[in-house]
Every structure is written in C-alpha cells, then in structure tokens.
UniProtKB/TrEMBL annotation:
<dbReference type="GO" id="GO:0022857">
    <property type="term" value="F:transmembrane transporter activity"/>
</dbReference>
<feature type="transmembrane region" description="Helical">
    <location>
        <begin position="307"/>
        <end position="325"/>
    </location>
</feature>
<feature type="transmembrane region" description="Helical">
    <location>
        <begin position="366"/>
        <end position="386"/>
    </location>
</feature>
<keyword id="KW-0812">Transmembrane</keyword>
<feature type="transmembrane region" description="Helical">
    <location>
        <begin position="337"/>
        <end position="360"/>
    </location>
</feature>
<feature type="transmembrane region" description="Helical">
    <location>
        <begin position="442"/>
        <end position="464"/>
    </location>
</feature>
<dbReference type="InterPro" id="IPR020846">
    <property type="entry name" value="MFS_dom"/>
</dbReference>
<feature type="transmembrane region" description="Helical">
    <location>
        <begin position="89"/>
        <end position="111"/>
    </location>
</feature>
<dbReference type="InterPro" id="IPR036259">
    <property type="entry name" value="MFS_trans_sf"/>
</dbReference>
<feature type="domain" description="Major facilitator superfamily (MFS) profile">
    <location>
        <begin position="23"/>
        <end position="471"/>
    </location>
</feature>
<feature type="transmembrane region" description="Helical">
    <location>
        <begin position="61"/>
        <end position="82"/>
    </location>
</feature>
<dbReference type="Pfam" id="PF07690">
    <property type="entry name" value="MFS_1"/>
</dbReference>
<keyword id="KW-0472">Membrane</keyword>
<feature type="transmembrane region" description="Helical">
    <location>
        <begin position="20"/>
        <end position="41"/>
    </location>
</feature>
<keyword id="KW-1133">Transmembrane helix</keyword>
<feature type="transmembrane region" description="Helical">
    <location>
        <begin position="406"/>
        <end position="430"/>
    </location>
</feature>
<keyword id="KW-0813">Transport</keyword>
Amino acid sequence: MRDITTETAIEPDKAHERKLTITLWLVATGFFMQTLDTTIVNTALPAMARSLGELPLRMQSVVVAYSLTMALMIPVSGFLADRLGMRRVFFAAILVFTVGSLFCASSRALWQLVASRVLQGVGGAMLLPVGRLAILRTFPRERYLAALSFVAIPGLVGPLIGPTLGGWLTDVASWHWVFLINVPVGVVGCAATALFMLGEPLPSAGGFDIKGYAMLALAMLALTVALDGLAELGLQHAIVLVLLIFAFACLTGYALHAARSEEPLFSLDLFQIPTFRVGLLGNLFARIGSGAMPYLLPLLLQVSLGYSPFHAGLMMLPAAAAGMASKRIVVELITRYGYRSVLLVNTVIVGLTMASFALVAPNQPIWVHIVQFAIFGGFNSMQFTAMNTLTLKDLGTGGASSGNSLFSLAQMLSMSLGVTVAGALLGTFTSLFGHQSSNQTLVAFHATYACVGVITASSAWIFAQLAPDTRGVSGHGEAHIGED
C-alpha cells in the first residue's frame, strides 16, 4: 500500500521545482529580449530613415529614447516589485515591452517611433532587475550563482546576434520586423508569467525616495537633451548651456538631499567604498565610447562604405566572438597584475582601437576590417569585464541591492550618452565637411571616431586612482561578467 502522505508531499515539491525552472527561463528570455533590442535596431537605422523621410545620420534619438528610458526606470523597478509583487510587475513589463514593440513597427513618423521606443524602454527596464530579484527571492541561496550565471548567458547571445539578425530582417523583409519578432515571444511570456512565476507583494515594502528620484531623473533628461540639442534638435547654444547648468544643479541638489535623508534613493555611503567609487565613475565615462561604437559602426559600413544591412550586421560578429573569447583572459590578467594596471593599459588600448576606425577606407581588403573589428571587440569586452567586477566586488550584502541598481543605471545612462555624444559629433562634422557624398560623410566619421577614441582613452586617469594591489574577482562580479 502506497504512503499517501508521502506522495502528496512530493507533488507540491515537484510543482514548486517546475515553477522555479520556468521562472528561470522566463527571466533568461526577458534578459535576451532586452539585450537584443539594444543592438538589433542599429543596423536597421538607415532603412528606417529612408522609410520615414529622415537623414540616416540623424536617427540617434531612436536609440537614445530606449536606453535613456531604461536608465530612468531602473530605480523604480525594485520598489514596484516590492509593492505590487514580482509576478505582476514582470507580467506588466513583458506586456508593455510587447505593446511598445508593436507600436514601433506601426510608426509612420520619427516622433512616433521615438515615443514608441520610450514605451518599449519602460518595459525593458524592468525585465532584468525584477527578473534578477525574482531569482534571488525564490531560489535557495546555494543555487544563486548557478541561476544568475544561466540568466547571464542571453546577455552574451543577444548582442552577438542582434546586429546580424537586424540586418537580415531588414534585407529579406523590412525594418518593421526588427520589432515584430518581439510580439509572439511577448505573448507566450505573458501567459507563462501569469501561470507559473512566483513572487507576491512584500507585507512591509519600504518607501520610495520620490524627491531624490525626481532630481536624478531631471538631471539625466536635461543632460541628454542638452547634448542631443547640439545635433538632432537644433537648439540654440544658450538653451544648451541652461540645460547643462540645470542638470548640474539637480545633481548637486540630490547630493545635498541624500546626505540628510534617512532613506535616500542611493546612499552616498556607497561612494566611501573605493573600488565602487572608481569603478562606477570609470564605467560612466569609459562606456561613453563603448556606447557610441554599436551606433556608429553599422552607419559607417552602410552610409560610407556601401554595405547592405545584412553584411553590416555580419561585420559585427568578429567583434562579438572576440569579446566572448577574451572574458576569461582578463580574469587571469587581473589576478596576476591587479585592476589598476589592467584597466590603465586596457582603457588606453580601447581608445586607440576606436580611433583606428578613422583610418578605414573603401578600398581596403575586407580581412583588414574583420581583424580591426575583432581586436576592438576583444579589448572592449575585457574592459567591460574588468570594470564590472571592480565596481561590484566589495559591495557586500548590505549595499549589494542599492549599489547594483545604481550601477545598472550608470550603465544605461552611459550607453545613452554615448549615442548622444556620437550623434552630436557626427552632426557637427557633417555640417562642417558636408554629407552630399559618401566621401564627405566618411571624413565626418573619421573625425568622430578620433574624438570618441580620445574621450575613452582619457578616462584611464580615473582608474589611476586605484590602489596598485587591488585584486580579486568576487561572486557579484562573476555574475555580471556577461552583462555588458
């Protein structure tokens, strides 16, 4: 005779384990959708410009709108998950992301596309933070690292296939399918989240620093609009100066507010940790160049060198493949030489490889470009890994949640600033050299790459502030190695 009590006890365990497995796949898929959409659009920008009657070199707002919105929404995601429950917020995130993707594909003017990208960014911003939170709260502690490592894999795959997939869809169908592919995935994701995902509201969810959030959000918006105003928006220099001063005033106001607030959005105590302080500032400035390159490279290949969208996407594969291959190398270098030496040298090399694209010419053999892309991708990936692990390695459990959220915000903000700065530089140089022919635009691209390289290389002085003996890669850092 079977033991009914034992059997009924086993069934709930199996059901719970199945929900954990499905939750893991949901979070991984959400992360894949988010990272895919940060790169898949870039190769389709010239086709979008032709369809919407815009200039290909004035389409940076499509990329900026998505990444800036994600930066603005990241601090809110954790609070919403606590107050409303992870399942509800994750469901809403997938739904909003899917609807935003549908609206993007239906856009008939640039302003409609930008507005739809904002909506898409609202959903995308909550996919990874809330998903990671769901794993941390539902999985046993001994399974954290394996679960987070599994979720990090799509962070490598998304950027790897994004440019090529975007180019292929644009060539064989139209740019609209760059967004439409998210719809069936989103529908399945919503159904699976509603049925299987764990995560109820916390009974004692903390408050939210609305005043601090407002000041940071206004600072990020003012800074982005000021920089973009020099290129795409055509703002007067006086207005740009006022916006920059306003952004600085908001940041100063937040610092004063956080110093006296009992529960600030981001505690200033985080900046008492030397590795976090240097890592965060280094990430913010070094990533400006790294954020500009995925936007600039497909444009260079299509506008000035005559590549098709698919071939332009294929050219990004050597950079992505070299980046994946170099991740373990940098860990060994850090162990042997320390963060300070590795980041000082590597930051300068990354800046030089960016500037080397100023030497690109139409008559060069394709293998030269492939080698150039691979070298850039390898050193750029090493930069990401070193900066990520440095920033998070000494946070500890007390500051892990707040520090990780601030770090994610800085990542998305620097990506937005990178595209904004690239657009401003490209707009300035095209107005100076002209954009009537591919040769004129090529000169503008050359000047832009040189400036982006100098900006990146000059951020090496930030890493010079590290102690020479700073070594070690923590579990937090390892979990973020794939999150470029």
